[in-house]
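Support request, please re-run this one:
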Amino acid sequence: MPDKKCLFCDGPLTGRKSRDHPFPMWLLTHLGVCDEDVEPTHIGYEKEFQNGVANIVREYVAEQRSHPMQAFVAGGVCAKCNNGWMSDIETRAKPVLMPFIDGQRTLTQSRHDLPDPESLAIARWAVKTAYMIDRATPGQDTVPTNHLHALRSDPNRTPPGVRVFVGHQSSDAKVSWWSSPTWFGMHLEDVSGYDAEAFDRLIGASYKIGMVVGKLLLLVAFFPDNAWAMVIAKGIHRLLWPPDARIGEVPFDPEHPVSVAEPLLKVFNGNLRIVHKPSLDRAPGMMQDLV
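Re-run finished. Output below.
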């Protein structure tokens, strides 16, 4: 058997190995959820292609675990990474995050109400947390290795093509997550040479990992083809990082593509959509604005 390597630096996992908490103990302790039971679950999907669209016809539980929140951990990280740059991310993000977690501070739709260094601190924390959620959840491992390496290699950015969005919530939920690479494609009929199976393969290489941390919602998203732009729902999402990303915006429809009757994070994740960029010129009224 080959020697196991660290997810982030490819260094050998020898000697003392770290078990990283995707949600750090300072957060679990602050929210009082260390001993709450959770059930990390891998949901599988069966699809059928109808009229050029891949439709989910069945969801099923592929794998599930049950344990206290403080036992939700991921392996595969060397002590040097865990106690080095990953610890630095926590140190920088914690004082910025706390007022948002406690609901003492909120963000508007303006990009100018949070300085870039604070936005970056939250964004990198969200990405690191999302990547460890991905590794700790059964049946996941959807984040490619080059994204793990990119997060480590440059402390002043997030991996290329990754977008981080924020929102706020008022329920009693304290910590939860939802990972699902499902995308509602807008105006697919306008895409020249559209191939439903090729589009579905792009979706298979994408990821969306959303999380509740107190009163703050965070969503880390990646789509592997830059010919497509992400589209937020106004009043639901706000782009956090990178600040110069080209995204679309549409009014929030409480019934579509994901109903407000669905779980909180399923709504937050599901209403982040995708559109082929050339379609913007052919359907300029599709979006309220390009922000």
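The first strand starts at residue 17 and ends at 20. The mean pLDDT is 84.
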